[in-house]
């Protein structure tokens, strides 16, 4: 499968710094909830935590929310989320992320201007990465891309005869129904 892509230098602790697995299991709603990433996962959790009463800020490096989806759909989602009170910061890069005694602090930059955002918790939703490290694939002759995905052909064959790969380790889209089909 795959796991959440970490933000460099920020350790996921499940308490203040969360992945989607942690965010789905919180016992209480944070007052201030920061979301790094406005893809499907980040936007879903932003919506849920806002509905639960959290003050939510979404930070996205791309110029729109849901950057991998239809631009019109992203614009519509952004409009409705903003109306619900979710603060959306697109075209904004997280330069630094750190935990504090009380929560988290993000240093963000947009158009050269730097700003500090503080929250009780941060969801790191900046993508996923395959669970292929330390499996000995290269030693076995199985080719892996520079992003960690196992190289496969249209029939899901790897570079080693008799070895196949499906699902998240074989590349995007990283969806359960894609893996089931494969």
Keywords:
182 residues; 21% helix
What proportion of the residues is helical, as a percent range?
A: 10-25%
**Rg value:** 18 Å
The H-and-E topology, N to C, reads as: EEHEHEHEEEEEEHH
Helix- and strand-based class?
A: alpha/beta
Q: Strand order of the main beta sheet, please?
A: 2-9-3-4-5
The overall average pLDDT, rounded, is: 96
Q: What distance lies between the first and last C-alpha atoms, to the nearest angstrom?
A: 13 Å
What fraction of the residues are assigned to beta strands by DSSP?
25-35%
Number of strands: 10
Low-confidence parts: none
Task: Specify the biggest β-sheet.
Answer: 5 strands, parallel
Oligomer: single chain
Number of helices: 5
What is the general shape? Answer: globular
Give structural notes.
This protein is α/β, with parallel strands linked by helices and 182 residues long. The protein has five helices and ten strands. The strands form three sheets. A five-stranded parallel beta sheet has the order 2-9-3-4-5. It has a three-stranded antiparallel beta sheet with strand order 6-7-8, with no helix packed on it. The chain has a two-stranded antiparallel sheet with strand order 1-10. The longest helix has 13 residues. It starts with a strand and ends with a helix.
């Amino acid at each position: 499968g795959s796991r959440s892509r970490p933000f460099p230098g920020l350790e996921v602790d499940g308490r203040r710094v969360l992945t989607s697995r942690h965010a789905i299991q919180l016992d209480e709603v944070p007052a201030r909830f920061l979301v790094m990433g406005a893809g499907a996962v980040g936007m879903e959790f932003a919506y849920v935590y806002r509905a639960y009463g959290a003050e939510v800020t979404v930070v996205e490096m791309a110029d729109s929310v849901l950057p991998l989806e239809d631009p019109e759909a992203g614009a519509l989602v952004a409009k409705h989320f903003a109306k619900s009170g979710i603060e959306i910061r697109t075209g904004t890069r997280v330069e630094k992320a750190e935990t504090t005694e009380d929560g988290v602090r993000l240093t963000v930059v947009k158009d050269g201007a730097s700003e500090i955002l503080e929250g009780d918790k941060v969801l790191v939703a900046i993508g996923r990465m395959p669970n292929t490290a330390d499996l000995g694939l290269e030693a076995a002759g199985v080719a892996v891309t520079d992003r960690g995905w196992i190289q496969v052909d249209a029939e899901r064959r790897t570079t080693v005869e008799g070895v196949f790969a499906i699902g998240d380790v074989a590349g995007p889209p990283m969806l359960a129904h894609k893996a089931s089909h494969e």
